[in-house]
Write a structure and sequence with these properties.
heterodimer; A: Rossmann fold; 4-stranded antiparallel β-sheet; globular; B: MetI-like fold; binds adenosine-5'-triphosphate; binds magnesium ion
Chain lengths: 253, 283
């Protein structure tokens, strides 16, 4: 394997089946370090599935079979401990899913699981993470309150803070704004814009404008295949493939 | 609606009946034996014909139930966790049906098992440490029988609440780099805690009210409390169940007074535990 610092993920000949359902077909892809990559495509085309491959969350499904290789920073992820991989590759889910515990405990959850016990260190991590997730000012006086009392948008930013707290290098986001109103959505988008300085971000979205606004690279999926991938500005201005053009101009999907 | 009303009024009538029977020993004059003293009843430690003190056995009842609860709860919770989260599907299905079966076995069978097996084991354990037991009938046997009876109840209801923990919470935890074990304890048990607590409350109710099996292994001590687990003991229920074989008179009616106390204790325990449960949920 060539020693390549430019890419965080290199995906080679990836095929994935859920039972008899061939969901990902021969995927080859590189994910650039410290950039935002967007996955777009119609429902059911396998975007979330590919995202889940990257932190090995598909391991949880018995019926899932994966062929091909994924390298994370030049290491085959199948040779990594999934727990270790997930501390480097964080994930934010489609609908906000904070734990039914205090705001503080939510953010401290990952670090605690990783063995950090020192109160001062934890407090420091929680504060920084909440600040990075642009949530600190809104919650600083009620860190002990239950996280379920927050609004949907705040909950999603809390989930981002929670993912940041494990100090990952990559953050996977599966339609992080689909359950949110426009104001909360634009807050999250601003946040992603700030976060991309420190993290590699891969985001699944159904919202074409969102992909165009926030991403550097875009991959267009159709029926389990990557039809086209390239710089976002290029792909939206000059789609090479007819199907891509149809999709981004809204002619189907 | 109508059924609810019928059920509710049936309960009221039963409670009222027991209550009226239960206060009669303290107010009515029984030919030959007079009446019982309420003060002695509540503060006395000895139970013989004409001398009715329940404080000792009241302490026994709470003591034995507490120990049985402390042992059976963690076992049940871990069993539920094992069945839902760890065991392969077929194994967990078979354990589950065994537990359902155990929950449906009548208490007299547990009593027989206690007399035949547990007493024997306890006797031998006692011998091992040079402790003389009354053929094994003891507080320890009682506790063990209670534990065996509580586990299926607590486990079954815990299973339901462990299963109800949402997948997205489990996934969120794993995605944060938590191990499976950390996820099971911090997210699954924590998320199921109010259901688990309800299960424990039900188990405690069952233990406090269990009469048949307990009577068969406790030995019915005359005085109490009996805090040494190798000594024979006596509980509120075993007192009601055995000992005095008349069908009328003071000896007979005073058992209803014990029943009133038992109902009161069960009510009090359940109210207290439910209050704790609500506090836990708020957190
Ligand atoms: N856990 C699973 N078990 C079985 N099949 C699954 C599972 N997850 C996804 N699939 C199937 O895989 C295919 C791709 O699903 P996936 O969720 O990756 O699509 P998607 O592109 O994210 O769609 P959407 O935009 O609606 O989220 C679908 O046919 C889906 O039914
Ligand atoms: Mg999806």
């Amino acid at each position: 394997m060539e020693n390549n610092q430019e890419y965080d993920f290199i995906i080679k000949n990836l095929n994935l089946h859920y039972g008899d359902n061939h969901v990902l077909k021969d995927i080859n892809m590189e994910i650039k370090h410290s950039r935002v990559t967007a996955f777009i495509g119609p429902s059911g085309c396998g975007k979330s599935t590919l995202l889940r491959c990257l932190n090995r969350m598909n391991d949880l499904y018995d019926i899932c079979r994966i062929d091909g290789d994924i390298f994370y920073k030049n290491i085959n992820i199948n040779e990594m401990n999934p727990v270790e991989l997930r501390t480097k590759v964080g994930m934010v889910f489609q609908s906000p899913n904070p734990f039914p515990m205090s705001i503080f405990d939510n953010v401290a959850y990952g670090p605690r699981c990783n063995g950090i016990k020192d109160k001062a260190t934890l407090k420091e991590i929680v504060t920084t993470s909440l600040k990075k997730a642009s949530l600190y000012d809104e919650v600083k006086d009620r860190l002990k309150d239950n996280a379920l009392g927050l609004s949907g948008g705040q909950q999603q930013r809390l989930c981002i803070a929670r993912a940041i707290a494990i100090q990952p290098e990559v953050i996977l986001m599966d339609e992080p704004t689909s359950a949110l109103d426009p104001i909360a959505t634009s807050k999250i988008e601003e946040l992603i814009d700030e976060l991309k300085q420190d993290y590699t971000i891969i985001i699944v979205t159904h919202n074409m404008q969102q992909a165009a606004r926030i991403s550097d690279y875009t991959a267009f999926f159709l029926l389990g295949e990557v039809i086209e991938m390239g710089e976002t500005s290029e792909l939206f201005a000059n789609p090479q493939n007819e199907k891509t053009e149809d999709y981004i101009t809204g002619r189907f999907g | 609606m109508v059924i609810g009303l019928v059920a509710a009024s049936a309960i009221v009538i039963i409670v009222l009946f027991i209550f009226i029977k239960g206060i009669s020993p303290f107010i009515n004059d029984y030919q030959g034996s007079g009446n019982a003293s309420l003060l002695k009843f509540i503060t006395g430690f000895t139970w013989t014909a004409g001398n009715y003190g329940i404080l000792g056995m009241l302490i026994n009842t709470l003591y034995l139930t507490l120990i049985a609860t402390l042992v059976s709860s963690p076992i049940s919770i871990l069993t539920a966790l094992f069945i839902v989260r760890i065991a392969p599907k077929r194994l967990s299905a078979s354990i589950k049906s065994v537990i359902e079966l155990l929950a449906s076995i009548p208490s007299i069978i547990y009593g027989l098992f206690g007399m035949a097996v547990i007493n024997f084991v306890v006797k031998n354990i006692g011998n091992l440490f040079n402790i003389q037991t009354a053929g094994g009938t003891s507080g320890l046997s009682t506790v063990i029988v209670l534990i065996i009876m509580m586990i299926p109840t607590i486990t079954m209801i815990s299973i339901t609440s462990v299963e109800a923990v949402r997948q997205d919470q489990i996934h969120a935890s794993l995605a944060l780099g938590a191990t499976k074990a950390q996820t099971d304890f911090k997210i699954v048990i924590n998320g199921a805690k109010s259901g688990i607590f309800a299960a424990i409350i039900l188990g405690v109710g069952r233990a406090l009210g269990e009469a048949t099996a307990v009577s068969m292994v406790c030995g019915n001590a005359i005085t109490g409390p009996n805090l040494n687990l190798f000594d024979i003991t006596r509980t509120l229920t075993s007192t009601m169940m055995l000992g005095l074989h008349e069908s009328s008179g003071l000896d007979y009616d005073i058992r209803f007074s014990v029943g009133v106390v038992l109902m009161f204790i069960i009510l009090l325990t359940s109210v207290t535990l439910n209050a704790i449960k609500r506090m836990l949920e708020k957190k």
